[in-house]
Structure formats: C-alpha cells, structure tokens
Write a structure and sequence with these properties.
Elements: E1 2-4, E2 7-10, H1 18-24, E3 27-28, E4 32-34, E5 51-53, E6 57-63, E7 68-72, E8 77-85, E9 88-90, E10 107-111, E11 116-125, E12 128-138, E13 147-156, E14 161-170, E15 193-199, E16 202-207, E17 213-224, E18 227-228, E19 232-233, E20 239-248, E21 253-264, H2 277-295, E22 298-301, H3 307-324, H4 351-363, H5 365-377, H6 379-388, H7 419-435, H8 438-459, E23 461-463, E24 468-470, H9 488-507, H10 509-516, H11 522-532, E25 537-538, E26 543-544, H12 558-561, H13 589-595, H14 602-612, H15 624-633, H16 637-648, H17 665-679, E27 682-685, E28 688-691, E29 699-708, E30 711-718, E31 721-726, H18 729-732, E32 752-756, E33 759-763, E34 769-773
Parallel strand pairs: 28-32
Antiparallel strand pairs: 1-2, 2-10, 3-4, 4-5, 6-7, 8-9, 8-14, 10-11, 11-12, 12-13, 13-21, 14-20, 15-16, 16-17, 17-18, 17-21, 19-20, 22-29, 23-24, 25-26, 27-28, 29-30, 30-31, 31-34, 32-33
Helix pairs in contact: 3-17, 4-5, 4-7, 4-17, 5-7, 5-8, 7-8, 7-9, 8-9, 9-10, 9-11, 13-15, 14-15, 15-16, 15-17, 16-17
Length: 786
C-alpha cells in the first residue's frame, strides 16, 4: 500500500486479497455504501458487486430474540459493465494480463478529499492492447443522496481496436456472505430478490423482507473519437442496460458517463430527474470540501519514516465515518460494519454511542443529533424489551434493528449486556455538554434519561450486608467474563444515568411529573441508588477492580493463550473457560477511565493501566483506542502512539483478518478519539475548552477543529504553544455539511474560555485567535478583530 496525504493507493494485484480490498476501498454518502469491486468482473463472487443502502434489508437466517432476524441486503449491481475488446470479454485484471501478484500496471486509489474511487490497468490479450480506467462516487450533495456516478475510459494502445461496452443494472445477485465468521465467510449468500420487472434502463425488484421495493434507473452517455455514440437497449432476465459499439485507432479513447438513481417503495425514478455527470461530480466535491472543514486533522510530523502513512491512515478513518453517516434521516443509525459488509447484519450496537458518536458531536452536531434521535424513535421498542424481561423503563437491545428490536440470537447473553442502556444515556449527556442544545434535551434527551434510569432502578439490588446497591449478573465491555456482578464500567455509567435523570426531574419538577408520570419519591430513589452503587475498588492498591471477583481469578499466561493474532476463543481456549482467568477481551476499566478522565487521579490511571494492559487480549477492534487515550493521558506517549497505529491501521492492514466482512466503524471513531482526547487532550466541559496535549515524538505538531458550544474553531498544537483560531463565520453557522446546526450553535461573536495545561485564556467575542504558550507563563495574543 502506498500513502499520499489525501489518498491510499494499492498497486499490487493480489487475488488472495481481492475481497478484503473490496471492503477497504469502500466509498459512500450515508445513503449508499459501495465496496471497491471490479464492475467488469462477471465471474463468481466478484460478479455480485457489493452495494448497500441504509435501511434496506433482506430476511436473515436465525430466530432473533424478538421475531426473525434480517440482514443487510446486497442491492442489484447497478455498476455492471460488460466489456469486449476485439470480441473477447475483458473481465478484470485477474483475467486479462495481470495474473501475478504485484505485476506492473494495476492501480487503485481512494481519494478521501473528494470521495472518489478510481482504478486502472493495462489490457493485453492476443495482440489487443488497451488501457482501462474506472471512477465512481456516491453523490454527497444532499439533493442527490440516492445517486451514484460512474465513469469508464478505454484508450486504444494499437490500431483497429473493436470495442463493445454494455452499461447495465444487474439484478442477478445474492448477498456476499452466507455466514460471516471464522475462518472466512462462506460465499455466496442468500438471494433476497423475490420478483423483478425491467423497464427502459430501469429495474424494479421486490425483496423478501417487509416486501421492500427497490427501483433503480440509469442514464448512460458514451463518447468516442470526439463524438457521442448512440446505444441500443439490452434488457435481459432481471437486468436492464444499454450497449455501445465503436472502433478505436491507437491513442483514441472511449468514455462512458453513467448516473444511477435508487429509490425505495413504489416510487419510480425517471431518467429526467438524474443530474448530469459533471454537475453531480462538482456538487459532490463541494459537499466533501465542507465536510472536511471541521473534520480534518492535520499532522505535522518529525523525521518519521511513516510520516505520510500517519496522515493518510488517519484521514482514512475520518473519511469512512463521514461516508457512512445517514444524515438524510434520523430513523436510521450506523451499523457495526456500516454499509461496507454484511457482518452483524447491519445492526446497531453500543459502540455507536461510545466510539462513533463523539466524532460527530464535535465535528457535525447536526449529524450527532440525528443519530441520537434514532434512539429516541426506538424508545417504545426498548420499553417493550424491558417489560418482556420483567424490568421497568427502557432496556435498549444489544443488537438493534432499524426498528429498535433485539436482533441478538436467543441464549447468547444479550440479557446481561445492560451497559448499552447507560451508554446511550451517556451519549445524550455528552451531546448536551458539548453543544448546549436545549431543544434536543427537552424534546428528546430528558425522556431517554428518565426511561433508562427507570430501567436501572429496577435492575439494581440492595445488598444489606455491605450497605450498597449492586447490579448483578451483567456483562461489561469485557465480554470474556460471560456474566459477573458489579462490573465497574456498568455501575459507574449507570450511576451517571440515574443521577442525570434525578437532576432532570428536579430541574423541571412540575413539568416532569406530568409529562413523564413521575411517581412520588421516584427521583429521590434514583439519587439514592446512584450514590450507593458499588464500585469495586481495592484501597490498599488504589486499584479499581473490573468486577467484584476479578482479583480472585487465576492469572493467565497470555503468550500461551494467544500465540498468534487470532482471538483466544478461536485458537486456544473455549469461551466457557475464560471466566476462570484474569483476562479481558477488550478495554474495560481502561475504557471507563478514558471516558471519565476527571473522576480518577493520574496515579489511579497509571495503576489501572499497568494492571490491566498485560491482561487484555485485544480480541476486539474496540480495544486499541482506549489504551491509546489513557496512555497519552498518563504521559506514556510511546505506548499511546503504538496503540494509535494499531487502531488507525486495523483495516488497512487487515490485522484481524476479517475486513473482508466489512470495515470496523467503531474503531474509526476510536482512532479519532485517540488523537482528539489523547494526543490533543481536548475536552469541552462546563462551557470551557480544555487542552492538555501529549504529542508523540513522531509528531511536531497537530491541528484539529471542532464545534465548542457557540464557537467553531481550529486548534493548532506544537511543542511550545497552542493557538485557537475561529473558523469563518459562514462555516460556523452550519454543521459542516451545509445544514443549519441545532440549538443555534456556531453563531459569530461568541466568546470562549480556554484552559491550556491549567492556564486560562479567553477568546473574546471580537477576536479571531488567541495563543497560549506551553510550559511557562500564559501569553495571550489578540489576533485580528473580526
């Protein structure tokens, strides 16, 4: 892999890595996710493509906790291209002239600045020579979110090249994965199309889940030797297309421009509504430019052989987060593998709120609000789930469908994983702390806090012997514990949830009692439980215990248990054996301290890190970033940088050998947190921007941006100073994607309190910049007045 500042490039044609790299080169716009498959490849699994649309599902294969499961549905391949050169099919570089790994000429690139995927290779077959190039994008502009652009160019490298190119929508597809599990998915998967109907360059299909209807139409134009070609329609079984023919002499080129529109329901999509290719591409580029204003992170690196790599892989993580966010609706959220693969069936987990959401809270509050509204819209399903399990309030499911229904298979432990409930409450609170969006809090957030507090009040038990409240039989982030009593992470976040709900009721007591039917003494009971919840802790060691029995377990020889990169449960020990040992699947206490940094002393953080880090198997993509954050906060920047690299490169290097089943979007959010909360040391609390940098030696400086209450700003960090600059007034008034931001944030002229390593400065209302020197007395420099 080759790295450029704004792109990743692969010049190795390796058939063994084809499917993983299809996932790696995924592009999207929140409506679509499009894997980097080869559109001309008409054989085997590669012919199935890999296009997913948010909220479009097919029937699953197992009985879920509530009803039957469903899975993300692979859509008809709307980018299908059948190419013949001198009468012979050109079906991809693995078939024509690039059989061997690493042979010169193959090239694929993801341009993250502009959201465009391109690929090219030379074609040589029985004397026919040509150069083939492909480009595609999912339009980011909100006017055409359901539109895809495709371009194919073929240049003749010798005279007399007879060319045929058919641009089609191919409905003869199945899902890519029958099962998404070790060692690799079994392929191909299920067919979710129950019936189809073709029209003039259009295909209408019915899916087997909720009788979902999908309508696809295309408009294709072709040019050769300076003239536009006339094509002929080529409808076939479950496909619709158009065929172009031409003859090229050496140096002449054929170019295809194709626009595809997809709608759900009975709505058709006439070609007349499709934008022009160049019009759509220009709007797409402009939309991505706006996205990067608050989202980009710039790294100024020292003498470092991985200088370009650090910058590129970091931007890759950020790009994928923006490319998957469904900003067009607040009725959907982001699945664990986004729209890049079928693993976890497109379901939403706790990592959405804890790992992904902070990125959007700081860089695109409008999008963050939409993701939280998804949880509000599924509150009734969470109430039903709580009642079904004999609890009060709202019990959010571990593995949520688009309707908020529990999709976890029965009897695999979703009953115990209750920290998802307080994770959502924490996200509501974090969004409010950073944005100050009172409208969201009053219309949506309060009800979530109250219903989740009611759940925990019914889930907690009083231990009279110890004089504490407990949460028994739970599974914390360490999923290798199966179930335990008093997981520290769960109890602390539940206490935060309960106390926040108590304060919400006390703040507006009369209104809350009427609106939410607060019973006499109910809120006071929440406060009592919150203050009395047990947090396992060893005073002699000043060490927080992961749960109240962790210290009693046997130590585990990690080298023996994990001799390779494979998970323990996939290599050496069965799942049932792990509760015997002090082994943590992924960050648990470490995650708790990274999330609540002000609740613990530096000594407690160091003690916890030293104890749990060697006991953590990192058998989850969620583990590396919290370790990076906490290591940075305690000044161990070498370790922080090492864990940052593992997080940032997880999919690019396919370190867990399962990128083939989709990208790890929570890990992308964790990578952003490792830089933002770890290396930059940024937090926005109580209306103040706090900055405590811990830059690794590999980086000379760092620039980040964000939305902090009523101010959007760029922060420049070096070894000697921190500079906070306002972002232009026009940008400040939007969420980074062109929409007005909720709650009135981003208004020009607002002041901002800034604390840098304990030194206070103020960005006054009429200033656009302040600088604070590090390591000495504070020096505040007034920049240009606005």
């Amino acid at each position: 892999m080759r790295y450029e500042a704004w792109s990743i490039v692969n010049e190795e044609m390796d058939q063994a890595k084809r499917q993983s790299r299809d996932a790696l080169f995924t592009i999207g716009n929140g409506y679509f996710g499009i894997r980097g498959f080869f559109e001309e490849d008409g054989r085997g699994i590669s012919a199935l493509g890999g296009i997913y649309s948010a909220g479009v599902f097919g029937k699953g294969s197992y009985a879920a906790w509530e009803g039957d499961s469903r899975e993300l549905c692979n859509l008809p391949n709307a980018l299908r291209a059948r190419i013949k050169i001198n009468g012979r099919p050109a079906e991809g570089p693995g078939e024509n002239g690039l059989q061997e790994s690493g042979e010169a000429g193959f090239f694929q690139k993801l341009d993250m600045k502009q959201g465009i995927y391109e690929r090219r290779y030379p074609y040589t077959e029985e004397g026919a020579k040509a150069a083939l190039a492909f480009r595609r994008f999912a339009v980011m502009d909100e006017r055409w979110k359901n539109v895809i652009g495709q371009e194919i160019e073929i240049r003749a490298e010798e005279d007399g090249l007879e060319l045929e190119v058919e641009a089609a929508i191919d409905g003869r597809v199945t899902n890519l994965n029958l099962e998404s599990c070790e060692p690799l998915p079994v392929q191909p998967g299920r067919n979710h199309i129950t019936r189809w109907e073709t029209g003039e360059q259009s295909l209408h299909v019915m899916l087997d889940y909720k009788e979902t209807e999908i309508h696809m139409c295309q408009r294709a134009r072709a040019f050769a030797a300076g003239r536009e070609l006339t094509g002929s329609l080529t409808n076939g079984e479950a496909e619709a297309g158009i065929l172009f023919r031409c003859r090229l002499e050496k140096g002449e080129s054929f170019r295809l421009e194709k626009m595809i529109r997809v709608t759900t329901g009975k709505e058709s999509c006439p070609q007349a509504e499709l934008p022009g290719y160049h019009e759509a591409e220009e709007a797409h580029r402009e939309a991505w430019a706006k996205k990067w204003i608050l989202s980009d992170i710039r790294v100024d690196q020292a003498e470092n052989p991985d200088a370009l790599k650090d910058q590129a892989v970091l931007r890759y993580n950020l790009f994928q987060l923006m490319a998957v966010c469904p900003e067009h609706t607040d009725r959907l959220s982001i699945g664990a593998r986004g729209l890049s693969g079928e693993m976890y069936e497109g379901c939403v987990f706790w990592d959405n709120e804890i790992f992904k959401l902070p990125f959007f809270i700081y860089t695109n509050p409008g999008a963050a609000a939409g993701l939280l509204k998804f949880r509000y819209h599924t509150l009734d399903a969470a109430r039903r789930h709580a009642g079904r399990n004999w609890f009060d309030g709202a019990m959010y499911p571990w593995q949520a469908s688009e309707d908020g229904v529990e999709q976890t298979p029965y009897n695999v432990g979703a009953f115990y994983a209750v920290h998802i409930v307080s994770d959502i409450a924490h996200a509501v609170l974090e969004y409010g702390r950073v944005t100050g969006d009172r409208e969201f809090y009053e219309r949506y957030g309060m009800e979530i806090l109250i219903e989740t507090a009611r759940f925990f009040a019914s889930r907690c038990d009083w231990n009279g012997e110890e004089g504490v409240y407990e949460i028994r039989a739970v599974r914390g982030p360490n999923e290798y514990d199966v179930y335990v009593n008093n997981n520290a992470y769960t109890n602390l976040s539940a206490a935060e949830n309960l106390m926040a709900a108590y304060r919400a009721v006390r703040e507006r007591e009369e209104e809350a009692e009427k609106r939410f039917s607060i019973r006499p003494g109910e809120a006071e009971q929440w406060k009592k439980i919150a203050e009395g919840l047990k947090l396992p802790y060893c005073k002699e060691r000043d060490l927080y215990e992961e749960d109240d029995a962790y210290f009693k377990r046997r130590e585990l020889d990690m080298k023996r248990a994990k001799p390779t990169g494979k998970r323990i449960i996939d290599s050496t020990l069965p799942y049932e054996a792990l509760p015997l040992y002090q082994v943590t699947k992924q960050a648990d206490v470490v995650l708790m301290m990274a999330m609540y940094p002000s609740r613990f002393t530096d000594k407690q953080k160091r003690t916890a890190y030293d104890f749990y880090e060697p006991r953590t198997a990192h058998d989850s993509s969620l583990s590396y970033a919290p370790h990076s954050i906490l290591a940075a906060q305690i000044g161990r920047t070498d370790e922080a940088y090492r864990y940052f690299c593992r997080s940032a490169c997880l999919d690019i290097e396919d370190t867990q050998l399962n990128t083939v089943s989709g990208l790890h979007f929570a890990n992308f959010g964790g990578t952003w947190q490792a830089v933002y909360f770890g290396f930059a040391g940024v937090r926005f609390e109580n209306g103040a921007l706090m900055i405590n940098p811990h830059l690794p030696v590999q980086w000379r400086g760092l620039e980040i941006a964000g939305s902090f209450g009523d101010v959007t700003a760029r922060i420049e960090i070096t070894g000697t100073r921190v500079t906070v600059k306002r972002i232009g007034a026009e940008s400040r008034k939007t969420d980074g994607g062109g929409k007005e931001r909720p709650g009135g944030q981003g208004t020009a002229g607002a002041g901002l309190n800034v604390w840098v390593e304990g030194k206070h400065a103020v960005l006054e209302e009429d200033q656009d910049m302040i600088t604070v020197e590090r390591g000495g007395e504070s020096h505040v420099a007034a920049g240009c007045n606005l």
